[in-house]
């Protein structure tokens, strides 16, 4: 199988590329390196530095003979979407449409699309954990742009027969994540703690998230390339929640440090409680999350410790 991974030099993409290569899938990566890094990729990976909106993207398809696409490229933070909705739309909506147009012209059979829990908005506690059929009420332009891209995928299937699998991720963490953005709160904390700096919590710290390790996401994407249960939407999550205060407690447990905390005003567009049901993915994709939060935090913390060690800080 020949697979194009957009955004493959990024955090999640680098985990996906490793998983697919381990499974003997031929991978080509397209990434503009705006947040990704070439060193995130294993040596020898086929790589093209390019934005998905670039008119030259079609040449990549002409050479690649791709069976499927894993579409991870895009604008990934709530805060950026609120500051610059036009940029968010250009990357997440127009970039996706450009990719879909080229894909259908070149006979691509399937696209696996990375969506987000942000499409659901701030769901009332009685409806948690959130199932895929939940009413969509995004609180940010990021969530809105992902919903719009999902709708394009559905209509491309109806109009042109291009199969899709939409994966709505909960909060993903792990090695090689940049320490910025609300989804990267674990990496932000791990980076600060490993360099003995204090951490800032936006809000009261009781807001909850459903954190999932990037390796589990990569496995879910691999399963999505193989499944017969296509043209569906799946949550990829642990179906468990923890508050940011609880997260800090685990960090203190695994590091033996007393962490200096500072609380600040909540940020616009942030959701208070988030937990996604994962039963559909577990059943229809034969997938399940395998890495516990404590084990994942240890790996992530050690990754940042090694970075600071090599930097001499």
UniProtKB/TrEMBL annotation:
Signal peptide: none annotated. Pfam families: Epimerase (PF01370). This is UDP-glucose 4-epimerase. The lineage of its organism: Bacteria, Bacillati, Bacillota, Negativicutes, Veillonellales. Belongs to the NAD(P)-dependent epimerase/dehydratase family. It comes from Dialister pneumosintes. Transmembrane segments: none annotated. InterPro entries: Epimerase_deHydtase, NAD(P)-bd_dom_sf. Residues 3-236 form the NAD-dependent epimerase/dehydratase domain.
